[in-house]
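Cross-check.
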Amino acid sequence: MTSLALINEFLGQPPNVSAHGYQIDHILEFCHWFMGALFVGWLGYFLFVLWRFRRRRNPVANHEGVTSGISTHLEFAVVLIEAVLLVGFAIPLWSQRVNAFPDDKNALRVQAVGQQFNWNFHLPGPDGTFGRTRADLVSNSNPVGLDPSDANGKDDLVVLNELHLPVDRNVIVDVASKDVIHNFALPNLRIAQDAIPGQLIPMWFKPIKTGSYDIICGQLCGLGHYSMKGTLVVDTPADFQAWLKERAELAAPAAPPALQRPPGEPGPGATPGSVPPPGAPKTADPGGG
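Predicted model, tokenized:
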């Protein structure tokens, strides 16, 4: 990290782990130093005015005021710099986030559904296709409303408050809400998106470093807002596939109980003839029972 970027760390900015995050950090660095310079400059000007126009030196008020145009030039320069930041940097970066989405074929698609006060993550199964969801099917046991009659949803995964993603791969997250307005925020990946009821809003990013990072809600969404936190785990491709396999095994329905054998049918491991056919006379018990 360069010396100029230390101001972000000093102000509590967590480390960046996304491909586009360095652009966000550069804008923040410039804004922080620019606002710091303005603070020092205006504070110095304020103190100078207090000293220059003190009452002892100016017992009679001067109603003509300042005749120099330097203050006008300074204010124009500040407005110009802010316009360059907005039009030249912020708007193009925002446009790339909302318009230049990666190809779905090469990106992992995930759905993040907020509710008071949890995040539900819906991932497609090995078939790569999301199952159909219906609002009338939403329940505590079916938080995203998966339609059991849709074959595409049989292998889908629904995970609470923990999202695993592979490193160095584009990810598209469709953000939605079940109740109030939430905000799906990933501070380490320098991206966030409001979750609005009735809408499915996409966002995308590319994680570039493995590890565990915070998922938070960036909107005040109720009394339990403070507890609406999750974990983003960026895995290696192999670890991500292992996690998918583990979750699929946990989500798989339990095997049906063994069918009861009809009377007289040999059990497992029995040799032919060891069980008498139905109706055969019972032999005497060698033990005298």
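The longest helix spans residues 21-52. The first strand starts at residue 108 and ends at 115. Passed to J.P. for a second look.
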